[in-house]
Design goal:
This protein is an alpha+beta fold. It has 9 helices and 7 strands.
Length: 261
Amino acid sequence: MPFPPIRFVDILDILMVSALIYWLYRLVRGTNIMRIFWAILVIYIAWRVFALLNMRLCSQIFGGIISIGLISLVIVFQPEIRKFLLFVGTKTSLAGDSFIKRFRFWRNDASKKSGPNFDPYVQACMHMSQSKTGALIIFKRSNDLQEIIDTGERINADTSSALLEALFFKNSPLHDGAVIVQGNRILAARCILPVTSRMDIDPNLGLRHRSAIGISEQLDVMSVIVSEETGAISYVLDGQIHHNVSPVDLRHALEKYCTPE
């Protein structure tokens, strides 16, 4: 029997399903969800085997578990479903914004504002690295961070290296939590961030690093961390952490990912 011809729609269908599986994998990798997934898969396979062997009692029991499980999955995976929707919404929003900006041909290039000055951030991170002062700076990109800002203290001041170092000084009442910044403005300090639930992260990483990963998994931000133990500078983007970066590398990353188009 000859195989049916492969249509363009079939290829598109496969690519879309592959992209969906990849997105789901990125969200659940390193978490306990994978264990739950394997448990559900084992129960489903057992149910099908019992049905094929005509083992009615076991088949009915496992069939009931499957039917109830479909409803309970929504409750169990509610945080992950919300995270997935935020991920898709963020990426879609970014694509739309980029598309609109690319076709605003009527804007005069000479009227574009210069990008933010990242010197204070790099200098502050360099100084805090030398003194082993722990720090966590969240750079706002496309998402609204009002909910995160509301958990801390509003600053709304021009950025300076001295101000950043003062906020993270160990005896400062604002040194705990994260500082939220946008461009050349410090928006808030002592903000509380969501912590990642991934299990594949280096266990030696502390709460700052886990919080930096957690917020970057849910929102379009760039997180910069200075380790209190080692003084190493790291940054996180899209849930991926880049360890032990130099001040030059940090500047390049900020200019690349935090400069408005």
